Amino acid sequence: xxxxxxxxxxxxxxxxxxxxxxxxxxxxxxxxxxxxxxxxxxxxxxxxxxxxxxxxxxxxxxxxxxxxxxxxxxxxxxxxxxxxxxxxxxxxxxxxxxxxxxxxxxxxxxxxxxxxxxxxxxxxxxxxxxxxxxxxxxxx
Length: 140
Prior knowledge:
Layout: E1 4-10, E2 13-18, E3 23-26, H1 41-63, E4 67-79, E5 87-99, H2 103-117, H3 119-124, E6 129-138
Parallel strand pairs: 5-6
Antiparallel strand pairs: 1-2, 2-3, 4-5
Helix pairs in contact: 1-2
């Protein structure tokens, strides 16, 4: 079971504390009554999703003994224009750096994450079209 606790700070600022004892401040934009002190809640959903997926990809590559050295993921997403403003499209572009990485290894890791392991992206795929692509950079 996971737990979290959220405390309203002021206006549209909230302090969330995870069950593992980590805290994050969420806030809104000034035009929405916030002071822009932290990410928006939906930004955290997107960041958590890409974190989940990237964790899987690196884990799968390392488990397959791939010499992966770095992974950066750039994400573009669209949300519905009306409430509830769910994600409707999410694209993840992986830049995977390593030595001798094979495209089929990276593609397989991304596919396994998307279809089997990443609970966050699998959940968001109920409302969003999620796509992925990747490039491989050879490490020095």
